[in-house]
Structure formats: C-alpha cells, structure tokens
C-alpha cells in the first residue's frame, strides 16, 4: 500500500509544482488572453496531467528505495538471499518478463513491486515478512508482486492517474477563471488573469486531486484481486496465497469461514475504505477460495 500512497502523493506534488511554474512563467495569461479557450486549456491540462503522472512513474523506483531503505541484492550473501533471488527469477521466467531488481528491507511484514516498465522493475520483500511466513507462503507473496510487474500495473495506474489529472486541472482552471472574473467584475483595466485565478486553481487542484484518488484507489483494488489470482496460477494452487493473506491479516481459518458473510462491500468499515489501495483481506481470501 505504501508504494501506491507514495505514487499518488508524488503525483499530486509534481502536478502542483508544474501548475505553479506555469503560472510564474505566464502560461495562464496565454490561456486566458482572449477569454478562456477551452480547447487550448484541455490540451494544456492533458500535457500537465500526463506529464505529472509519468514523472511520478519515473521516480517510483528510487522513491520506493529511499522511503523503505531497501537494499538491492547484487551479490547474495547468505542462503536466504540466494533463495530470494532464485524465487524471483523462477516466477519472472514463468511470467515471461525480464528479471527485476530484487531488494530486501527492514520493516513490518510486507512486500512491493514498482518501476516504470517490465524491463525496469523492482521486487522488494521485508525482513518482517520473511521471518513471519514459511517459504511456501513467502513464495506466494513474491509471485503476487511478480504478477504486478507482468501485468504492467504501474503503467496502467499511471495512465489512469494521467486521465484524472487532466480533468482535475481542466475543471480547476475553469473554476479559477470563473471566480477571478466574478471578483474582478467592473474592472476593465487589468489584463489577463488575477491572483484569484491562480489561488483558486491551486486550491481546487488539491481538493479535486484528493477526490480523484478515489478513482485511482478503486482501480488499484481491482488489480490486487487480479495479482492474487495470477499468483495462484504461478504457484499452481490458491492455497499458499490465501494462507499468506490470512497470516498478514491475523485471520484464523475457522474465523474467516465463519465471517465470510460479512466480508462484502457494506462491511468494509468506514467511508475511508474508499481511499484504500487494497481490498479487505477477507474479500481477497474469499476470491481465492472460489478458484478452487
């Protein structure tokens, strides 16, 4: 989940920096020189929106390494690191993708995959996860992360982010222009947009950007189900992946079976679940159980 939150936060920061830079460089005056030119504004919004998303994608791997302190394994130093490299290599071969970088980091049980392309990816596993799980469960988690790389999930998420960025910037500038014109009504002397245009646009970009993360989070949750299923296929069984998820969620088998009826969308907890990049673990386990 950390890599998705980091990607969204980086994207929002990049888009805001690009927006401020555009204002300082006078782009706003060009867009509003003869009234608000919607066609030109939409092209500008798409350039900024997809530019911000792809810059975030390009930064995803170094940012993930920096934020977790992940150490890329270049020369395995012990049996565990040899096993980790060989496991990733085996699944990468099965998934028909180039060998990703493999890293290990200190932290709570978790793992992630990131990178701008299938040929420039990183799979990282925490020491906490390797200590908590048996080898079969850890293999399933690694297969899940390799599936993310094979499915091109980071690129897909970037394209979705680029689309929502475009609409966020486009609508924010329209609102900013309307507010600026309202505040300047009767003032015929000032040429170009006023300070209200820039301030309103930036505030709207922040607010709409947060709301747009709901769309990105929804697609992120769907890709988790797909990666779970692909991990089960790479493993030849859904049991190890389901077992790994149960362990991560601290769910006993009998407790899960007794609570499946309450694992639907309505039981997801508060509305904050809409911002989650991962579905509830009981729902993921139930989906894997249905594959048997």
Short key terms for the protein model shown above:
292 residues; four-stranded mixed beta sheet; alpha+beta; 11 helices
Can you describe this structure?
- The chain is elongated and about 75 Å long.
- Strand 3 (111-117) and strand 4 form a beta hairpin.
- It has a 4-stranded mixed beta sheet, with helices on both faces.
- It has helices at residues 2-24, 27-31, 38-68, 79-95, 127-132, 135-150, 153-183, 195-235, 239-249, 253-259, 281-289, and strands at 71-72, 101-105, 111-117, 120-126.
- The protein has one domain.
- The protein is 67% helix and 7% strand.
- It starts with a helix and ends with a helix.
- Helix 9 runs antiparallel to helix 11.
Summarize, please.
Helices cover 67% and strands 7% of the residues. By secondary structure, it is of the alpha+beta class. It has one domain.
């Amino acid at each position: 989940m950390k890599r998705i939150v980091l990607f969204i936060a980086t994207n929002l920061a990049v888009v805001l920096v690009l927006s401020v830079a555009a204002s300082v460089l006078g782009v706003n005056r060009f867009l509003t020189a003869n009234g608000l030119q919607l066609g030109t504004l939409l092209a500008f919004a798409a350039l900024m929106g997809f530019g911000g998303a792809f810059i975030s994608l390009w930064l995803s791997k170094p940012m993930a390494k920096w934020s977790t302190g992940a150490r890329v394994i270049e020369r395995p130093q012990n049996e565990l690191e040899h096993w980790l490299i060989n496991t990733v290599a085996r699944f990468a071969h099965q998934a028909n993708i180039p060998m990703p970088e493999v890293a290990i980091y200190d932290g709570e049980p978790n793992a992630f995959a990131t990178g701008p392309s299938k040929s420039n990816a990183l799979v990282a596993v925490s020491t906490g996860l390797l200590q908590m799980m048996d080898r079969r469960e850890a293999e399933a988690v690694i297969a899940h992360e390799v599936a993310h790389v094979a499915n091109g999930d980071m690129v897909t998420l970037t394209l979705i982010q680029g689309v929502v960025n475009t609409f966020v910037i486009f609508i924010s500038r329209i609102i900013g222009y309307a507010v600026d014109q309202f505040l300047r009504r009767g003032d015929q002397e000032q040429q170009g947009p006023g300070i209200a245009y820039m301030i309103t646009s930036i505030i709207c970009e922040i607010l709409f950007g947060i709301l747009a993360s709901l769309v990105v989070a929804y697609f992120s949750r769907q890709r988790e189900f797909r990666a779970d299923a692909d991990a089960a296929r790479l493993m030849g069984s859904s049991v190890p992946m389901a077992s790994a998820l149960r362990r991560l969620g601290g769910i006993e088998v009998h407790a899960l079976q007794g609570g499946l009826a309450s694992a639907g969308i309505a039981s997801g907890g508060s509305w904050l679940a809409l911002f989650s990049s991962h579905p509830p673990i009981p729902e993921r386990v139930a989906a894997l159980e249905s594959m048997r």
